[in-house]
Amino acid sequence: MRLPAGTFRRAQCLISTYTLLCIILFTVFWSREGDISIVSAPNTLFQFIEETHEFRIQFSSEGTCIGADERGLGLQVVYCDPTDRQVFRFQDNGSVIHRGFGKCITAGGSSDSHAQLKLGDCNERAMQLIVNEKTAIQVVGEDSLTELGSPLCVSLVNVSSSAGLVGSELGLHPCEEELPKVRLIEENEFRSMRKALLVPRPANLTIPNCDFVSCPLNLRAPSPKLLPKSEIERCTYLPSCMTIVVKTGRRPHLVIRMAQSFRDTKGYDLPIVVYDDGGDPYPENITKQFENFPLLTYVVDPRPDLGISLGRNLALARVKTKYILLVDDDSVFQVDLVNDLLLMTEILDTTDLSLVGGRFSNSGGLKGMMYFQNIQGSNKRILYGKKHCHEKVINYPDCVRCDLTSNIFVAKVTDIREVGGWTEELKVREHKDFFLKLKAAGKKVAYCPEVLQVLNQQETSEEYDIIRNSRSDQMYEYFLKMWNVDEYMSLKSDSFRHYLKTKRLVLPPGDTGA
Question: Taking a C-beta distance cutoff of 8 angstroms, is the pair 403, 445 a contact?
């Protein structure tokens, strides 16, 4: 059960035993640095004292939630979306009510194994449900056991191999079977995480060639400006104002290589925070190497599959400096490459930019602008103008304004936290989503290829590729769903201008299309 960091939620439990006076108070606490702490026991009903507590029931870190069909009769797996009806309230009697339709989760005509779950009358066959110690949804109270005496849990039926979990229906299976893990996300927290999708459309506003919910994001924030001298606080000693943030997936040797390359290039160390996936402990020959870097905080999370986004957010939570330098674990700093980090901090210190990106010396990386559009009922799309960045930053002619840069950048920690960091459900395919969140919040991004350059010395393995590729398509579909679009179209700068001309598109105010 996931609750906001640092908060405690009191719950009462009513235990079905012969002892009538047994009322036990539990404290449930969510720690951002460890496991989800769940207090639970067989035949235990959670009764939240705060009656207004509402949740999304999300399948753990897969971007999907339990939702209702359009008629409010059936339950199915859908992409988590703040504009859809996916909110549930846990009642005092252990039943779970759908807020939008006012109906409870029931077992249809039967509560036996493999029965399909539906929405029905709360006064008749409402089921009593808990999230058990294995983070599965378990039935308690009456009809909680199979004919053979096994406890029943919620599982998936009619799963489509091509669509992942999406579209699957919900049923009951014995709890000893392999079951989907879930977490409860408080509705206010969920909407805060998705606030970029809830941007209100200004009244009487017409966006050229765009008429759906994400279109107001095309209205760019004003050009970057210099801050008043009274507001400028300069960073003069990098180790006190910048932390390197890295998410790795069981590749400590690459982190050590990156840290050593930074020391060899700059002659000093920066604080480094690394989050790694759980698994078998590392041998002593690896952990001993960590000791060579006293400013390195290397956290091996107990969970085996954090994903890029959650790992970065956990690392970000440990940062105590004004800025972060985000790099991949396979990045390498080199003496013959430009890496003027003091100049990067000067740009951020003296302007209202939120993020300044660099480039990978061997691949160039990503940089460009992003717009939403649809033409005469065509597919809703994100149009990405690759390398389409031309507006120079005042006082810094080597920097141009972009919507997106590569994953090598310096950023203001407060601004990254303000937009909620990275979307944790996106274990991969998180990059464009992160920069769209910045754009939606009016944060300004620049690209400075002649100020920061890093070698991207990739290293991969068959195991790594299998894990990444197995969920890539699903994460891509979830990314599109989050932003209410059907497709993502990437065009090089020349093709982008040609596309604008042939489609007779009108760019948002402030963009010349040059």
Answer: yes
d(CA 23, CA 219): 55
How many Å apart are CA 119 and CA 105, to the nearest integer?
A: 5
Q: Considering only 183-187, 385-389, 394-398, 448-452, which range has the smallest mean pLDDT?
A: 385-389
Which pair of structure tokens corresponds to residue 496? 């982008």
What is the 8-class DSSP label of residue 423? -
Q: pLDDT for 6-52, tens place per residue? A: 332 333 332 233 222 232 222 322 333 333 222 222 333 333 333 45
Tokens representing residue 45 in the block: 């009903």
CA 42 vs CA 17, 134, 142, 160: distances in Å = 11, 11, 13, 32
Q: Rounded to 5 degrees, what are φ and ψ at 44? A: -110, 130
For residue 5, give the amino acid letter. Answer: A
Q: Which of 373, 442, 88 is nearest to 215 (CA)?
A: 373
Cβ–Cβ under 8 Å, residues 270 and 242: yes
Q: Which two tokens stand for residue 422?
A: 């990275």
CB 185 within 8 A of CB 61: no
d(CA 45, CA 433) in angstroms, rounded, equals: 38
Q: What is the helix (H) or strand (E) element at residue 143, kind and residue range?
A: none
What is the average per-residue pLDDT within 90-119? 82
* Tokens standing for residue 355: 């993020």
Q: Given the DSSP bridges, would you call strands 409-412 and 331-332 parallel, antiparallel or unpaired?
A: unpaired
Residue type at position 244: I
Instruction: Please classify residue 305 by burial: count the beta carbons closer than 10 Å to its beta carbon, then call 0-12 exposed, 13-18 middle and 19+ buried.
Output: middle
CA atoms within 13 A of residue 347's CA, in its CB half-sphere: 31
The number of beta carbons lying within 10 Å of the beta carbon of residue 104 is 25
Contact 270, 238 (CB under 8 A): yes
Distance of CA 300 to the CA centre of its chain: 19
In the three-class reduction of DSSP (H, G, I as helix; E, B as strand; rest coil), residue 218 is classed as: helix
Q: Does residue 331 contact residue 351 with C-beta atoms inside 8 Å?
A: no
Helix (H, G, I), strand (E, B) or coil at 455: strand
Residue 227, CB-side half-sphere exposure with 13 Å CA sphere: 15
- CA distances to 217, 285, 287, 293 from 253, rounded to whole Å, are 41, 11, 10, 13
- Rounded CA-CA distance 446/448 in Å is 7
pTM of the model: 0.78
For 188, the enclosing helix (H) or strand (E) is: helix 187-193
Q: How far is CA 41 from CA 68, 149, 380, 421, in A?
A: 28, 17, 47, 34
Please give the Cα distance from 311 to 301 (Å, whole number). Answer: 9
CA distance 469 to 301: 22
Q: Which two tokens stand for residue 90?
A: 């846990």
Contacts of 296 (CB under 8 A, 6+ apart): 259, 272, 274, 290
Query: 1, 499, 510, 10: which is closest to 209 by C-alpha?
Result: 499
- Can you give the pLDDT at residue 50? 39
